[in-house]
Amino acid sequence: MLNYSYYPFKNKIEEIDFNDLLILREVSEGWYIDYKVQGLKITDFAKHLSAFANQYGGWLIIGISEAPDGSRTASEFLGIPNEQLEKLSRDIREASAAHVNPEVLYEEKVIKGPLEDIGLAEGKSILVIGIPMSHNTPHIHASGRIYRRLADQSKPKEETDRYILDELWRRGKNHQDKIKDFLKNIPELPESQSDNPWVHIYFKPADGQLAPEKSLSFDEFSKIVRNTNNDILGVHAPMQAINTTANGFIARQIENNDPSLASLTIRWWHGGRVRFDIPLNQFDFKGFIATQERNKYAFDFCKLAHEVGFKDMKIVDYSMFIQTLASLSISYIHMLNLTSDKRDIYSCYTLRNVFHTSPYVDSELFMKRIREFSLPLTVDRIISIPSEPTEETMFFHPHKNLHIEHDSYERNKAVPFIFSLPLIYQIFESVGIISNIDDLTKDNDIWGFSKVNNATNTVPNQTN
Length: 464
Description:
Blueprint: H1 18-23, E1 33-36, H2 42-54, E2 57-62, E3 80-81, H3 85-98, E4 100-101, E5 107-112, E6 124-132, E7 140-141, E8 147-148, E9 157-158, H4 162-184, E10 198-205, H5 218-226, E11 241-245, E12 248-252, E13 265-269, E14 274-279, E15 281-283, H6 285-289, H7 298-307, E16 314-317, H8 321-338, E17 345-352, E18 357-360, H9 364-373, E19 382-385, E20 395-397, H10 409-412, H11 415-431, H12 437-441
């Protein structure tokens, strides 16, 4: 259920019944309530939706007449014919999506007759539309006007007061600024790890879409990140340290790592936001050549570096990055599916401590590219994309790409990679690993499938 400034009913909106409607006989039309006997024109629906959203939120209830005594409370529950419901719902949806900018968030509930206690006849229904107070203001009507709900006016009032208009703009901006500050915040690191390279990725559900009714419990979170029930059929990175936080949960991979240090982490905030903290392994020449048992082209990479004149270098190994990102992504997708979260997702990232490092992926085609264009050198200390994260600038992950089938490994294994693809491409391009999408899609080695433990489909631990 959405967060309402005023809620007149006893039950949640999806459980509203005739007893909740009877309460309306004591509730006058005004700031928060508007009764309508029948549907409106689409443009008029848009006025009411935007007016409630711009003010304190409220309820548009269709199929109820006002009391004739001037009290403006609910009188008769006349209802609307059931055959009109589909069109009415469609008109409201169009009013919100096409006649108000930005779109108004709302939810609806149909109460069908016959209900003798309130006099609602068979074949008739009451339609309840709930509109929360918006933080994405002002919502501008297609006519170019800005409407607000004012006191006991049954019609929304066009707003012309400059002070009020400025307040609406400020309310929307303050909300966006808070989200930006949240998404730009990266965790502090212990002093011994303060120079290590990391990738921090935020995911957030879309603001203008209905949040799920179900919350994620600690037990459910724990089972997902540990894969206790083997629900994750594709790649995953098992977590060993799981605990609650002030506003969510956190899981860290501490096996073969010092538990007191920062490590591979997934942090969940109630409401659906999440952050991945992914450490990247960094080496000098000697240390990197020692990895040639797992990195097929490590020696050739170092040899080429010497040939072009590198005396010393810091090498950041991205060979397991795609698999690691996918392993955290599939856990997040399972969390969204478990809570029935149907919102689209947006993401942004920060790459830190990569100044004057040379990126490496264990790929034959990568080696071919650097022989032609020389070794890439990352010249930015911190890379944050987008620098000012908003839904207009962040990476978009449509909900249609989040579907998983619990009984099919073949169908599921591609899901986290498709979900992560916009981030993979942008991160690899920003450090110079690739220069176009073909470098990614046509390079089988770059995806790191040969490095995954095929017996358990787990990603090897990152070292700090």
